[in-house]
Amino acid sequence: MNILAIESSCDETAVAVVKDGRQVLTDCIASQVDLHRIYGGVVPEIASRMHIEAIYGLADQALKKAGLQRGDIDAVAVTYAPGLIGAVLVGVNFGKSVALALDKPLIPVHHIRGHIAANYIAYPDLKPPFLCLVVSGGHTMIVDVQDYTKMEILGTTLDDAAGECFDKVGRVLGMPYPGGAALDRTASLGDDHKYDLPRAKPGVNPYDMSFSGLKTATLNFIHHAEQVGEELDIPGLCASFCCAVSDTLVPRVMQALEQTGYKKLAVAGGVAANSRIRKNILAAAESFGAEVFLPPLSLCGDNASMIGAQAYYEYLAGNVADMHLNAYATKSILGETI
Ligand code: KG4
Ligand code: ZN
């Protein structure tokens, strides 16, 4: 089954064709990052306008690159939540139009379910159940993936997402948007133990996390150093920050592995590209005898292949939409409107 998949939830317009949920026939992406970088973050209206300008050409290019005709498409999938609402609306409306024109089923896909499904492309033999750590720009959660479309959230951030903190700290350090990758590169030159940054232990649920305290403490630390004219060891600060994020994530994931008894751990989302988090997860999981699934960097960030992968399983589960499909800025991974 060839699924034409569309992703436009933030600042990447992406179109892919994925066969049977696992085989990427084509994957085209138009990143707007350079444009938003001027403003230090995503400007929602600019994002929507750029999606509208790019989306038709990208879909056309995706089919041509794969040597496919419109008639070779069996279904159309689109990210319908969550994201910048104007941006998601562009993809949803385009997806509806294509499904209507081709007279094919329309499959709505939750963006975070898509991130998890990036692992199905990277690891063709991976099947649920497994545990997944989702770390993106807007979400941080530990998910029990019981089946392709049946999930339970074991824990989540109670405030900021890990990626948000990376971007904020990167911005204050003068790094280009989005700060996560630049901060990671700078951290590679630094000492993990240079600065003592806080690790929060919020609430009663052992799997819940908090990053706003770490973010504020790091920003205050930078501003204070500026005010008193103290020169900071920037690579050391970046390394210490990455370490604090990793220390917040990894022990909780290991505890969840222990509780669920799973021996398979997947990681998903843009922050899954972080070298320290990747290294520390691998080392910790090894001591648990658990197999780790880490998508390549190209599948960690936003892309349409992951949407096409998840769409296949949504379709098999009967999750198709009609022409009344709407877009949602927020929606739980379990499908509830929040
Ligand atoms: O999953 P994603 O592409 O978009 C959302 O769905 O949010 O995640 C984007 C986030 C940004 O915050 C970006 O700074 C972060 O992923 N990111 C990283 C790295 N590469 C991207 N964070 C830390 N280390 C990285 N190497
Ligand atoms: Zn994403």
In terms of topology, how is this protein built?
Blueprint: E1 2-7, E2 12-19, E3 23-31, H1 33-37, H2 44-66, E4 75-81, H3 85-102, E5 106-110, H4 111-122, E6 130-135, E7 140-147, E8 150-156, H5 162-172, H6 179-187, H7 212-228, H8 234-260, E9 264-268, H9 275-287, E10 291-293, H10 297-300, H11 305-316
Parallel strand pairs: 1-4, 4-5, 6-9, 9-10
Antiparallel strand pairs: 1-2, 2-3, 6-7, 7-8
Helix pairs in contact: 2-3, 4-11, 5-6, 5-7, 6-8, 8-9
List keywords for this structure.
binds 5'-O-[(R)-(carboxyoxy)(hydroxy)phosphoryl]adenosine; 10 strands; five-stranded mixed beta sheet; 338 residues; alpha/beta; Nucleotidyltransferase, domain 5; 45% helix; binds zinc ion
